[in-house]
Write a structure and sequence with these properties.
SDR family oxidoreductase, alpha/beta, seven-stranded parallel β-sheet, disordered N terminus, Epimerase_deHydtase, 13 helices, 351 residues
């Protein structure tokens, strides 16, 4: 990231989703910034003791963002910047009607509360690259203005398409509010728990037969860094977030020391569910396309307009997750290197 000073530092920041990894650790970072007078952390769930300690001087409000209490909090604390980090995939619970209501109705109420509060001048929304969908008709790279060839019809991607619509509607109705939408690629790291981290942690990894998905990752530290960067610097617009480079799903599985299990597309989610035995979140139907075809983002605007530069590449993110995360190899790195040497020797001999 650039070391330039942050102009127009917010005075009073409210962050939703304070019990989540991204929301909670963002609150902790903002609370350490002496230029910010007040940091308010909001969630209907109480954060872990570890997160609460890290939040330091931040004030925690236990409230439901779907309720009128949010608008009262914005007004009473004279909030000028809202970071909406609450929309969640809710891995442990799946995508139920209750989660959809929290994502969609909750976000609608956040935008409505911002609209009614004169002090609010900025909204930063954590969206997702899942809004692009994933199919065989996709372009090599998705830019922010690229329409999905097959828009998500259900699940988290569909939720966030609706949520982004509410955020843009707010920008039209209150033209004095700068709206920044961040679309992170699949987030990996040693601490954050996601469906992708659970999937890549499997010793035997079901993959779609006959397909080779192209993947990008965003390190958990870069996801936090991008949220903090966007909070401190007014850059309205929509921005893809991802580490440099691309890896295939096969490369990711092999680097983790795990084994691929090719299955038909329609059996991917059921087989993952059986192998995981309910211990960790299973793959949802809307993620099958991603694991078959992958998704790659154009991050030009992230660098040139937002001004953010990730510290980790896609490959470095994957390797850090493997090294420090909760995955352990079935086949060690030394074994893979031995097999690679034997394969190269055999190919040389044939030539």
């Amino acid at each position: 990231m650039s070391e330039q000073s942050a102009p127009n530092t917010p005075r009073s920041v409210l962050v939703t989703g304070a019990s989540t990894f991204l929301g909670g650790y963002l609150v902790a970072r903002l609370a350490e910034n002496p230029a910010i007078e007040r940091v308010i952390a909001v969630d209907s769930r109480i954060p872990s003791k570890t997160l609460m300690r890290r939040m330091g001087r931040a004030e925690f409000l236990r409230l439901d963002i779907r309720r009128p209490a949010l608008a009262k909090a914005l007004a009473s604390y004279e909030v000028d910047t809202v970071v909406h980090a609450a929309p969640s995939l809710m891995d442990a619970a799946g995508h139920s009607a209750a989660i959809k209501e929290l994502n969609v109705v909750g976000s609608m109420q956040v935008c409505a509360a911002c609209q009614r509060t004169p002090s609010v001048k900025r909204l930063i929304l954590r969206s997702t690259a899942m809004i692009y969908g994933a199919s065989s008709a996709d372009p090599a790279y998705f830019a922010e203005g690229t329409r999905a060839r097959r828009e998500p019809k259900r699940g988290y991607g569909r939720d966030m398409l609706d949520v982004e619509g509410y955020a843009r509607g707010l920008a039209r109705r209150r033209q004095d509010i700068d709206v920044t939408i961040l679309r992170p690629q699949a987030i990996l790291g040693p601490r954050i728990a996601t469906r992708m981290s659970a999937y890549l942690s499997m010793g035997l990894v079901p993959v779609v037969f006959g397909h080779q998905a192209r993947l990008q990752f965003l390190h958990e530290e870069d996801a936090l860094g991008a949220l903090e960067w966007a909070t401190l610097r007014p850059r309205p617009g929509t921005f893809n977030l991802a580490g440099d480079g691309v890896v295939t799903l096969a490369q990711a599985v092999h680097r983790a020391g795990h084994v691929q299990l090719p299955v038909p597309s329609r059996l991917l989610a059921p087989v993952v569910g059986v192998l995981q035995e309910g211990r960790v979140p299973s793959i949802r139907t809307e993620q099958e396309g991603f694991l078959a075809f992958g998704r790659v983002l154009d991050t030009t605007r992230m660098r040139t307009e937002l001004g953010f530069e990730p510290r980790y590449t896609t490959l470095e993110t994957l390797d850090d997750f493997i090294e420090r995360g909760r995955t352990s190899p079935v086949i060690g790195a030394a074994t893979w290197r031995s097999l690679e040497r034997r394969a190269v020797s055999a190919a040389t001999a044939v030539q």
